[in-house]
Amino acid sequence: MTEALPTTTREIVLTEPPVGLPTPEHFTIARTPLPAPGPGQVIVKNRYFLVFPGLRTLIGSQADGVPLPRIHTGDALFGPAVGEVTATGPDCTLRPGDQVTHLLGWREHALVTADQCTLLDDALPDPVAHLSSGSAAYGALTRLAGLRPGDTVLVTGAAGAVGTLAGPVARLLGAATVIGTTRSPDKAERLTDELGYDTALVTGPRPLDEQLAKAAPDGIDVLLDTVGGQQLAAAVRAARQGARFALIGALSGQLSPHRDGGSSPADIDTFRLINKGVSLLGYSGPDHPDVPKEWTERFGTWLRSGKITFPHVRIPGMDHAPRALQELFQGRHFGTVVVELPPT
């Protein structure tokens, strides 16, 4: 033990299961006991935690097969966080002052075992960048889609946490044309002006097939899909011979008020998949354990050189976290959304 520790901490708890999309009324900020760390355990004071759409699935009733536990009424939310070790128990490899990532965000302090933490080095210039979703985008493009120089790439949901990194990464990996989709004209403009997308298609007002035909008249070689649903179906119709599709998200189901976050049906043309020789694979991080380290090294180099940025929004304070989650579902933000906690 190294210093006087608080005996309680605050965490965000699910108070009732939502019907439709969760709102701040479904959560409360509760004060709970904070035990002293035991053997191999540490107390981490969280500085940032991620607001991510997968919470909709974990809160819903259809989370079967997801490699994370469901969140029931009375449970605290959780997710990726960056923090500082403030105290350690016996036989612990970490030390006070170490910066780490772990999965017990949505609280001010976390009691975790040292083996559930990843010690941070100086690979990234800003610790909050460790909460990016770039590892999944990079892994999907390199391991599943096998992106090649000259490819035409479509990224659905391009203004989200994955898409704001996927487009620039695709370009750095050699893509000739990068196209994104978004629900907002303002975000479409930011995608082209700030992130180098050649074209950003606004879903809704005009048929996506018509827009894709203009943006990629010869079709697309690679799809990085975070949405599913009708956008996946349109991408299938635009596929070139031998196109490679990497599915990384299912926002059309997760963000639908009429579903429960655990399914995202799509009516796709399987005849075209066969006729065009299209590969369609889902990306799962645990299947590619070598990707995070490779991504962090390349991400850090690209950030320091100015070849890439990390678009994100910092929401100040625990009290605003439930609202930040609702705003994420509403598409209010551009890029990654994190909650920032005060340092003291």
Automatic annotation (TrEMBL):
Annotated SMART domains: PKS_ER
Transmembrane intervals: none
Coiled coil: none
Ranges of residues in domain Enoyl reductase (ER): 22-339
A Pfam family assignment: ADH_zinc_N
Domain of life: Bacteria
InterPro entries cross-referenced by the UniProt entry: ADH-like_C, ADH_N_2, ER, GroES-like_sf, NAD(P)-bd_dom_sf, Zn-ADH-like_protein
Name of the molecule in the record: NADP-dependent oxidoreductase
Organism: Streptomyces spinosisporus
